[in-house]
Amino acid sequence: MMKPRPRKLNLFLIFVMLLLAYPSCSLSAQTKGEEEMAALEEVLGTNVNFNSDTLALVARLDSVKLLAEAERSVPLKWAYYMLMADGFSIAFDRVNPITDRYYRLARELVSSPKTRELLQVGLMRQGYYHFIYRDVSRAIPFFLRADDMDQEVDLGKVPNITENYGFAAGFYSFIGNQAKAREYLQKALPFAKNPSRKRIDMLNSLGVYSVKDSLLEEGNRYFKLAIAAAKSAHDSVWMGIITGNIADIERKKGNRELAIKLLLENVSLSRKFGETQDAMRANLELANMYIAKGEPEKARGHVLDAQADMAQKPYYLPYMMESKRLLSKVAGIQKNPQEELKYIKEYLQLKDSMDEKLDFEKLQKVAYQWEVQRYAQGLENEGLRRRKDLQTYIYFFIFIVLGLALILLLVNRSKNRIMYMNAALERDQLELSYEKQLVDHELEALNRSLQEFTDTIKQNDLTIQRFRNEVIQNLDHFPDRQELFNDSLNKMLEKQVMTEERWVKFNDIFERVYPGYLAKEKEAYPRLTDYDFRLISLMKLGLSNRSMADLLGITLEGVKKAKQRLKKKMERQ
Predict the structure, then answer these.
(1) Is the pLDDT of residue 396 over 60?
(2) Which pairs from 440-448 meet CB under 8 Å and 24+ separation?
(3) pTM, entire model
(4) Distance between CA atoms of 407 and 397, rounded to whole angstroms?
């Protein structure tokens, strides 16, 4: 996500308001369009990463919503929907119905031909949203629809084109269509500032995608352009990464010594600037080359260096597996059968996990090919239908009466086709909406339950306090009933005290109404006791000291002292 830029965003919002309020200003149409695009892109760059705090997200974007509504600005309203979708995606960290809803609202808003660029971007972003959460089958239709619009859009009107076309490129590269990935990056490249990290990244990606298609010379050309841009930008990190990619080409061309030299340079630069993952890949490649040269000790050293950089994360699995394979090779060259067998066993264990992952990715790529064929078949069928419709229109002139009937039929069929095309995108909406309603109702009930508990406690506290006052007032008149009064008061207090069973039920409701609240407190203050967290829960509800004293079965002074102790504990941690 983008870095937060609240002050800058407010300035742009003011600018947008002025621009929309004074359309007759002396700006040329081109200049005005550029300024409006800059403002829209700035709004789209708003930070929406508030983790799970959706209230902060809504508050952050409220200014965008209000301005969009006040000025009746379709682009700003669309941007608001996009940002809300991104924010809730981060909050839930998964595919979720709220994000889906905002994407749907955005699509409906920009269905006009005048806003086709925004529609295309929205489709790409929604497709990428499904893709990053490994829901590839649902991502495919969005990217196909976006690609279908490619000839209709004005590239100059596509907001944040380098980022959004980069999403499409990443997806197409994943499913194995490197040519399509390069096509999107080539279209976006003229809009990337020179020099800039974004332009360097795009040139490097073009090189990588070319090499994946065995277009070594083309890949080398892009890498040289990328490293020239990195030198202009004085970006040593990218220089190291690109050097490693050039080394891969030289290796494939048989220039081993040059490849080794370049990889050593890659490791040095990556180490210097903290790019451990890139250094890891380069070290593994160096180990391969030294094994080929018959220098096992050097190979072993580079493997161990690579392993030192490997984090225990799923996407590091291929590298860990490769390191075990290389170490078994080294052990074999050094005539160490026990060590060789050890590394082979470790390699095979990792391979089992890797095979499962690869099988899943293969299935996803097969699903893409199937979807492409189905989509193409749908377009072909649509073309056939249109040709038949043309023939039908000719007969309309001959058979007017029959033609009227056919027109009605064709209208109904057209509606059915539209419904069919949209069904793939909207098929889960009703189910998700229902699920959301259930969640909302449940949360509402829990909030109500907690509020009723709080209100009851406060009301009981008032009742007890009034009874206390009455006892005090009547002691002089009824001294013989003092014990009876005290017994009645004690019974009232006993009913107010929270039993262990009541605490369990209360804690369950509290955790569901305020998810993660106590967990965060426990993480921040690990030395606090269960009693401390009970006190924190009651304080969160805004109860008075008297109410908390009655619930905890202690004196008012005891509550004050407990709060003081809690404050000191939290200050010490």
Answers:
(1) no
(2) 443/512, 443/513, 446/509, 446/512, 446/513, 447/513
(3) 0.56
(4) 12
